[in-house]
């Protein structure tokens, strides 16, 4: 699961962004996806490659690119360097849609109410996650997110193989595995 948007509380934003940029650039070793040295493979096809490039152009226009490619070519495959934007306009299309590529937008929030409104202000809701030491706060967020799956202190969906899962709003097409579980 690729996280398209990350909201960071204002009190830790600068430190988080610096650390995230460092770690994100460390995983940028692109290459053959069957090689153990590779940390980042190509996109699935030319259509997705072109779509992600469109999102990068949106991010350049509507945000501040702090890590990413100056230019991209498909000559050696559909590789796109991991890309980070900060301070992206909440009205930008890149903040409203699911990118499904190595692109992330990091914006700052000041209150729970503020960030829940921003996180839910999209027609999509496949997955959301919250990172916090405060379990009560985590549960408030989990209940407040409009997402098919919510993770607490994890960034990828974690579910049992026999548990129904799926999106919310315009994400996904219902619940997978539901017939098996209900039957």
TrEMBL record:
A Pfam family hit: Aldedh
Top EC category: oxidoreductase
Listed name of the protein: aldehyde dehydrogenase (NAD(+))
InterPro entries listed in its UniProt record: Ald_DH/histidinol_DH, Ald_DH_C, Ald_DH_N, Aldehyde_DH_dom
GO molecular function: aldehyde dehydrogenase (NAD+) activity
Domain of life where this protein originates: Eukaryota
Source organism (scientific name): Glarea lozoyensis (strain ATCC 74030 / MF5533)
Family per record: Belongs to the aldehyde dehydrogenase family.
EC number(s) reported in the record: 1.2.1.3
Coiled-coil segments on the chain, per record: none
Domain Aldehyde dehydrogenase: 1-178
Catalytic reaction list: an aldehyde + NAD(+) + H2O = a carboxylate + NADH + 2 H(+)
Keyword annotations from UniProtKB, A to Z: Oxidoreductase
